[in-house]
Design brief:
heterodimer, A: 315 residues, alpha/beta, Rossmann fold, two-stranded antiparallel ribbon, 9 helices, B: 696 residues, five-stranded mixed sheet, 14 helices, 34 strands, 27% strand, extended
Amino acid sequence: MTTPLGASVDSDAGGNGALPGTRFIDPAALARIGNLELVARWVVEGFLSGLHRSPHLGFSTDFAEHRQYVPGDDIRRIDWRVFARTERYYVKEYEADTNTNFMVLLDVSKSMQYGSGPLSKLEYAKYLAACLTYFSHRQRDRVGLISFDDDVRAFVPPSAKHLQQVLHELDRATPLGKGSLVRPLAKVAESQRRRGVMLVLSDLYEEPDRVISALGPLRDAGHDVVVMQILDPMERSFAFDDAATFEDVETLVRLPVVPSRVRGDYQRLMEAHLATMSKRLGEHRIDYCLVDTSQPLDAMLFEYLLGRERMRTVK
Amino acid sequence: MSFSFLAPLFAAGLLAIGIPLLVHLVHKERKESVAFPSLMFVERTPYQHSSRQRIRDWLLFAARCLVIALAAAAFMRPVVARPVRPVTGGAGGREVVVLLDRSLSMAYGTRWATARRMVRERIASLVPTDRLTLVPFDVRASAVNEATAERLALGVALDSLRTVDTGTRLAPAVALARRILGASTLPGKEVMIVSDFQRSAWDLGDEVRMPVGTTIVPMDVATDAVSDRSVRGVEIRRDVKAPNDRVIVTARVVNVGSAVKGVGVRLEVSGRTLERRTLDVPADGGATVAFASVPVPSERVPARVVIDPDAFTGDDAFHFVLARAPAIAVLLVDHRNAVPERAVFVARALAIGDQPAFDIKAVRSDRATPADLAGRRLVILNDAGVPPGVGATALMRFVRSGGGLVNALGEHASPRTWPTGADSLLPGSVGTPLDRLGEKGAVLGYLDRSHPALAVFGGARSGDLSAARFFRYRPIAATNGVLARFDDGTAAVVEHRIGRGRVLTWGSSFDGSWNDLPRQAVFLPFLQQLARYAASYRERRASYTVGDGVDVGDAVGDGSERPRASTGERYSVRAPSGARLAVGGADAPGALEVREAGFYEVRRSGAPNERARIVAANPPARELEFASFDPLRLSGALAPEPLVASTETAADPAVRFIDQEREQSLWWYLLVVAALVLLAEGVLASRASQRRIQPR
């Protein structure tokens, strides 16, 4: 097996005593992004003190407001300077930082099986999911996984102890059926009440309206939704040479195609689709990232996390 | 008008129609397709993509199928011919010969009834000037009436006919018809052949031509599909694991038609069911069933393997005789000074024989007496010379009367010690031993593998006699009857006859001192074959085939080969149908011709209370092959000039040739039509291709 960085690793990680799925954790990628943080752009809920902004006030260094003292408050939090000026008891409140749920929503439909290079889209997405899960776990976030095609196929509930289960499920995930976002994501929105980060890894071969209608409930539920659209370079360039019959791996529709005749139109339609997707998702405050599987994983992660930090700073 | 094909097998070419369809829908597409995650954008491009999973150009597809069908039909060589109908009446009358097949296969289904109805209709259509001869045939043919137009007499003759258990041969019947027609003075001649036209019934080498002007009317009654199961044979072999003398009967069941499960098969011995089994037989295939071992009775008892009855019961049972193979009584004479451990080779080699078994009585040469020869069929002088107690005269008498003698000339069998008068027991003069020890021994350089005694070594991997080394042997000066020679040309095994008996002389020993032959694996069959041959042993058959001629004395005897003339015995035979036959003697055939399937009971005449001896007979296997041939081929063979068969007006040969060509020229038109359709297909395909690649 070749990692997105080009390093060769043993595909049978379990054979060396390692846990299944650990092969997807790319040390080089982690080393490159080690000094970054994956921070929720929106307010999320958690139990522990972490990196993400909490809806609740708590212990932190960021001052939020003063509140009048009520019996029961910790007298250590009384702001004596305000008392000196006003002779009233006020307590200082700070914004709380918390940990969060980090859920990977992995598309395992058959279209993800495609790959013109050494890695299929699914393999690439697994690396991506594994690295980000490990990264989040290190931040004390609770990690979980849902794989889906046109329905939920596997579910690992978010927990701080579920890194191994997530990696195991990643290892087991195989492309099976036809893909669709609406039904599985609706189930996720219903089941995952606690606000957290939802990382959707899919090739998004659906109409933008349907994608929005699928992701909307997640966003409406308060989740910080990150969509990574994973595409193979051949899917964007359609750089096939010979005329042949092309078969849609999900619908099994077969079409005789002369690539040189359709390439221009195909590229135009594809780019329009990607642009629409980026625009519409942005409108719905959903973080969107286009991932090219020919791109090295570490560079891609570094670029994405850096950009996300910048956006947080700007905000 | 009748329509037929000269080469109907080319109809298989019609299956080729499925090929473009298959290629169109499945094969080619799967092979060349490129898997792609989604074609949602490709489908939106402004080019038309044809889906090959469905047929769009039906007209094109139909044209291609039509081309294949026309080509196949052309190769089938269609023939349009006027039907050959029996001509009723006619000026001056007709000589009609009806050849009616009554072989076993005609008993299948309604064939026999159909055949009789056809003959009856032909009889009814006779006019007073016609004459008809009814000739039933199986492997032989004979007319059952004088040529006549008497319908009543012909009807009675027809009603008296039954099917028989024999096979079919058309040639004798056709030859008889030719004789009858050739002798007729009537102007019209007609041969009506009513048969199922089994392929085995007509040999292409049977060249019989009908007289000029003969109308040949083949009437095929084999129009129904055959479904039949039959027991084709049994194999009887000794159960080597059983403590006593038991045999295992294995039967082969053949199925014609679709597969059948759970066919009941039972083994009956002396009319009593010993075991019942079931087996599944595949479509148009066979299966074997092995029954548990049964004890072998000392007397010959009737046995049969029977399957559940089907539509054709004539072949549902296979009859055979179960009996212990007679043992060959052997007198083994060893030299008085023979070392016991060396004399044991011959006795051991014969003792383990079971087909046949050898009943061995071993004596030392100084203790042998003429009484020892009583009841023996073979004497083996194992390097013993002529036993003084027996004497050359008694030994000669024994051989002359049909006994066998195997004489091994070892160290003790010097001719100088032979008594006077015993020279004729040797094939020629015997010299002093030749010593080949210095050359690491001699080998057998020549074997007459065509000789019955050594024929068993004629097959591949049947035993290598050249592996044995011979260090000493006695040269035998014999020119005739040499069965084997050593590598220096010296005779090793020589046969000569005395009276009815056979004498085999072996130039070396059987005790392992002059050679290592007894230590070779091939020694056992070698010695047994020599003993069988010298004793004139002949295997008794467990069953015969209907149509065989059976030497009754041989079939019921003890296994020894005796000239027929010498038996002179008269037998009374009871056929399976109950008919009584006489065999042997001065006024009866010397052999029994088996005409019915079942058990024949044979008794010596004048011994009515004697236990009947059994001869089993079964239908010939060829008769149970129901494959048939086109009767038109027979018509063509009997009357190569078509107009002879179809019309009575003998036309000019050139005209006949033109007519013949005209009848068969349809293939030419079919090919022309196919070419035109192919042309149209090309145009259609070109247009469809253009249409498909045009942008919307």
